[in-house]
Automatic annotation (TrEMBL):
In eukaryotes there are cytoplasmic, mitochondrial and chloroplastic isozymes. SUPFAM superfamilies: PLP-dependent transferases (SSF53383). This is Aspartate aminotransferase. Homodimer. Residues 29-404 form the Aminotransferase class I/classII large domain. Keywords: Aminotransferase, Pyridoxal phosphate, Transferase. Pfam families: Aminotran_1_2. It comes from Ogataea parapolymorpha (strain ATCC 26012 / BCRC 20466 / JCM 22074 / NRRL Y-7560 / DL-1). It is an enzyme of class 2 (transferase).
Length: 409
């Protein structure tokens, strides 16, 4: 008998299952709004011109494919520090004081897993992480596989399609002191709803009072404002809270999957804010012990591209422009769908959240039975009513608006 004879089939992954249905659909006008990857105005995947340029440089200059250090190359880490912590006074102070430890991670997922393992092993106060309700489905799995427990804090108000500020602040205020809290830095997945800057101040006040340990997850840096630097506004607040002594530490996971389109290259970073240089050295030595048995050292092709993009002035400028192009197109598609629904089809529902929500996703408010009916019309989206704006383009928006109108009236 096979060793695996008793293995039961796992339940189908929600999003991958959707892709299978989409791929098997023979309707030429089918629309895929499940995918969390950028598509251009023709609905095609896009390799950023900055990435193409970096690949040309790399092809000419690369001299080896040796292993990189466990935490990634020194150059990668210097550039990450510069990208994340050199644009605000508090960030610069943290760098100067030797309080920033960074490492290359295997994109956002791998960075979160390493942070989770580190917290579970070395954080004495709590093994529980509060995550927003709802959150990216993989968050709970990543953190729980790292040996942590999770529970939800209020985040989204299903009646107003906006942030449930009171519920959120209330839940944080009643958390056990020292609990870990996961926060989406910008472009919350799946809702597209972020706290405004003054709401972040209130969140930080409670986090500080309760001495919570924040993990910031930044998977969509640049998709909120169109600029990866402007989207660091939230990080600046956390940097300042640490410098002002309101917060002793935080952790950050950052991904280049979306903002450099390096999805399959698996490149990102993690940072830990420490008390100072001596602690940074101690923590780094243990971080290496966490990473080594997981994957030994990170992949180097994508990280070399990132090094080129972040260090070559012209290519860096091209990257900023590329992020702007992606972000602008998503904003355009939000407007176009809104216009079709309200002006062409005269849909009676309020669709303002389509315009107000940020980033790649919109939480439409469509109910499960409406989603089912949309899928029957060859429009594919997850049962929670989340649509990927990246799946909309000028040639399919009319069909999409018509289908949404039909299932909502
Ligand atoms: N965090 C959030 C909220 C995400 O939506 C994603 C990707 O969808 C990630 C992290 C990590 O993605 P990756 O591992 O591809 O960087």
């Amino acid at each position: 008998e096979s060793a695996w004879a008793s293995v039961q089939a796992a339940p189908a992954d929600k999003i991958l299952g959707l892709t299978v249905l989409y791929n098997n659909d023979t309707n030429p006008s089918k629309i895929n709004l499940g995918v969390g990857a950028y598509r251009d105005n023709d609905g095609k995947p896009w390799i950023l011109p900055s990435v193409k340029a970096a690949e040309q440089v790399l092809a000419k200059t690369e001299t080896n494919k040796e292993y990189v250090p466990i935490v990634g190359s020194p150059k990668f880490n210097e550039l990450i520090k510069k990208m994340l912590y050199s644009h605000d006074e508090a960030g610069k102070k943290l760098l100067e004081d030797g309080r920033v430890l960074t490492a290359q991670g295997i994109s956002g997922t791998g960075s979160l897993r390493v942070l989770g393992e580190f917290v579970r092993t070395f954080y004495p106060k709590s093994n529980k992480v509060l995550v927003p309700n709802p959150t990216w489905a993989n968050h709970v799995a990543i953190l729980e596989k790292a040996g942590l427990t999770t529970s939800k804090y209020s985040y989204y108000d299903y009646k107003t399609n906006a942030l449930d500020e009171a519920g959120l602040l209330n839940d944080l205020a009643s958390a056990e002191p020292g609990t870990v809290i996961l926060l989406h830095a910008c472009c919350h997945n799946p809702t597209g709803v972020d706290p405004e800057l003054e709401q972040w101040d209130k969140i930080l006040d409670v986090v500080s009072q309760k001495q919570l340990l924040p993990i910031l997850d930044m998977a969509y840096q640049g998709f909120r404002s169109g600029s990866p630097i402007d989207d660091l506004a939230i990080l600046f607040k956390f940097n300042k809270a640490v410098v002002d002594g309101k917060l002793s530490n935080f952790l950050l996971s950052q991904s280049f999957a979306k903002n450099m389109g390096l999805y399959g290259e698996r490149v990102g970073s993690l940072s830990l804010i420490t008390a100072g240089p001596e602690e940074t050295t101690r923590v780094k030595s243990q971080l290496e012990k966490v990473i080594r048995p997981l994957y030994s050292s990170p992949p180097s092709h994508g990280s070399k591209l990132v090094e080129i993009i972040l260090s070559d002035d012209a290519i860096y400028q091209q990257w900023l422009e590329d992020v702007r192009v992606m972000s602008d197109r998503l904003v355009e598609m939000r407007k176009l769908l809104h216009d079709k629904l309200k002006n062409t089809y005269k849909n009676p529902l309020n669709w303002d959240h389509l315009l107000n929500q940020k980033g790649m996703f919109c939480y439409t408010g469509l109910k499960e039975d409406q989603v089912k009916r949309l899928i029957e019309k060859s429009v594919y989206l997850t049962s929670d009513g989340r649509i990927s704006i990246a799946g909309i383009y000028p040639a399919n928006v009319d069909n999409l608006a018509k289908a949404i109108h039909e299932v909502t009236t």
